[in-house]
Amino acid sequence: MTRRRVQLWIGLAALVSVAATVWLALWVTPPDVVQGDLARLVYLHPPLAWVMYLAFGLAAVSSLLYLWRRTRSFFWDRLAASSVEVGCVFTALVLVTGSIWGKPAWGVWWTWDARLTFTALLLVLYLGYLALRRVPAEPEVRARRCAVAALVAFIDVPLVQLSVVWWKTLHQGATVFGPDGTLKIHGSMAWTLLLGFVAFTLVFVWLLLVRYDVEVLADKVGDQELEISLAERWAEVGTAPDGAPAEDEVDEKLPSGSRT
Q: Which H, E and C letters describe 180-193, residue by residue?
């Protein structure tokens, strides 16, 4: 009950903070001097990208903890799977909001810019991770190979972040902080952006908790289906798991007057 209450409060906090972010972004903050109202996407796009990094980073840490024998637990496997699935949603939103900004700013919805390309590759890699989890295998085997896949896919995360530094790209550089670490956004715009980071982090946490519960239920259903499948198999061969004849076979061998 306590965990459910915490999850409820996180969901309510996420809802209120997202609503406040939308209100501040659309009606309180002023338009940008250069980009005008188009710059209002800055309150949405960078927070979504931050959550994308957070989700895949958490998946990588969880996968590493599963592979380490001293901390190996299916908790980490489920957490990694849940984080990757939520992270894929945010990655898709990053690409969509980036395209919405790119059309008026660049004149095209999509271009094979380095950051855009690596971000699209990131989504494909982690969709491949989710597909790998659907391949039939023993739970331990599935968890181990998915942990390795999550760590390999995470290599693309720093490539996404540093692509605008390592290559000359069409995508603009740092939006929030300058090269010397100073804040490039001030006043109500800075506070609205900060609230956006908090709001979407809360959304991520709430979705992660919900998705983890679904993962636990899916594992339980899978275990039950396995037990039913084994029972049906034993019934087909007419032998119980302990080597004794199946109940139907015993009934057939008993005289008709001795059956109950």
A: CCCECCCHHHHHHH
On whether the CB atoms of residues 210 and 63 are closer than 8 A, the answer is: no
Per DSSP, what are the bridge partners of residue 183?
177
182 — phi, psi (to 5°)?
-80, 150
User: Helices 74-106 and 139-153 sit at what angle, rounded to 10 degrees?
Assistant: 30
Residue with tokens 């015993």: 250
Q: Are 146 and 133 in contact (CB under 8 A)?
A: yes
Other Cβ atoms less than 10 A from the Cβ of 84: the count is 28
Residue-averaged pLDDT of the chain: 85
- Cα–Cα dist 5/13, whole Å: 12
- Predicted TM-score (pTM) of this structure: 0.82
Give CA–CA dist 248/246, Å, rounded.
6
* Distance separating alpha carbons of residues 102 and 172, to the nearest angstrom: 11
Residue 172 pLDDT grade (very low, low, confident, very high; cuts 50, 70, 90): low
Type of residue found at 155: I
3-state class of 65 per DSSP?
helix
238 backbone φψ class: left, alpha, beta (φ>0; ψ -120 to 50): left
